[in-house]
Amino acid sequence: MFKLGLVINPIAGVGGSVALKGSDDMLTQALTLGAELKANARTQTALNILLPYKDEITVYTVNKQMGEQAAKSLGFNVELVYQTTSDDTQPEDTEQAIKALLAKQVDIILFAGGDGTARNIAKAVNLHTEQSNVAQVPVLGIPAGCKIHSGVYGITPIAAGRVVELMVTKQLVTLTDGDVMDIDETLFRQGVVKAKRFGEMQIPSELRYVQAVKSGGKESDELVLQDISADIISIMQDNDKALFIIGSGSTTDFLMQELGLDNTLLGVDLVKDQSLLANDMTEAQLWLQLNSAEQANVTLVVTLIGGQGHIFGRGNQQLSPRVIRYILQQPGGKDNIKIIATKTKLAELSNKPLICDTGDSELDQLLSGFMAITTGYKDQVLYHVASPQ
Question: Any residues with CB less than 8 A from the CB of 184 and at least 6 apart, and which?
């Protein structure tokens, strides 16, 4: 019987769609702004991959939303190893749950969360390894947080499920050390990315399914970025009645600087007729804007996460499935999504595909295939966007 350890941080990612850029100490504010808890749904997406083998798996987990509900709803055999005392789960609950799972000698710990959750788990796993002098148990994350810099996550929830499937079916899986990274959320909300390495955990490393550590920092080639910005600005000049949604990232930040507009480095802004319409929009505000007045057309400008290749689902949860679908349904379809990146940034992906992890598998499939990437003035390359794993 395969022993699957499962821990869910139920509030992971709750601040993303409402532009809080994190979930730490933000639950009440996020829910007041209309945020939804999605970590359990993302966990179920991963566990769905394992349904053909559920009679061969026992899920060792925590009560309620920290694992029990997701596993039982899909019909898995569940054994509780730890119980929280309230619905308001804390980092200490995660650490105690990991301690209990390790005592059960599970084959792998699958967890859902973001970088903060990874830190909590690494702390518990590494402490147990040091104290017991035993081999470290493999760990793998289901991406559910607003920010995921760590290299211990599947590239999507489905990909995480695929890795566990390889283990359940006794296929050859390579183990390697994945870095646990996190950033200062206070600085993050001020537009400053300051990442720090907090350790490592052993992960089943299948390059098709496990993401790289996010690379940080601004692009250094300003001339190339000026050319990219000039291309997008020329599109704006030709479409002065169009609404432009500008996504997060240092490349889009450079575009906004070229426009002379205030920018939310880690948020979503609106531009019309080369003027700033709104800063740091939540998902609900975006949706209201799209439906409040007739738009001649809507263009979305995004970049990709360096080293990982994600274009949706990492740090831009404000761009929800319904927002993206609205844009795709405008005349022009996929052409309404402008992906901007330097060729250097694309080369750093080492031919790995771009990734969409919107939480809507049908939409991810719709976005798959080759898409044009603006890499200079009137200069584009076709790059492959992966189908859902």
Answer: 192, 194, 196
**192: its two tokens:** 């400053």
- Quickly name the fold that domain 2-204 has: Rossmann fold (3.40.50)
For the chain, the distance separating the N- and C-terminal CA atoms, rounded to the nearest angstrom, is: 26
Do the beta carbons of residue 340 and residue 373 sit within 8 Å?
yes
Residue bearing the bigger pLDDT, 218 or 307: 307
Lowest mean per-residue pLDDT among 194-203, 249-258, 315-324 = 194-203
* Sequence ranges of the domains in the chain: 2-204, 222-385
Q: What is the pTM of this model?
A: 0.73
Is 305 in contact with 214 (CB distance < 8 Å)? yes
200 strand-pairing partners = 179
Residue 209 CA, distance from chain mean position: 14
In the chain, the DSSP E strands lie at: 2-8, 57-62, 77-82, 108-113, 139-143, 175-183, 195-204, 243-246, 269-272, 275-278, 298-302, 310-312, 337-340, 355-356, 369-376, 379-385
Structure token digits, residue 208:
């098709």
The dihedral of CA 357, 362, 363, 365: what is its sign? Answer: positive
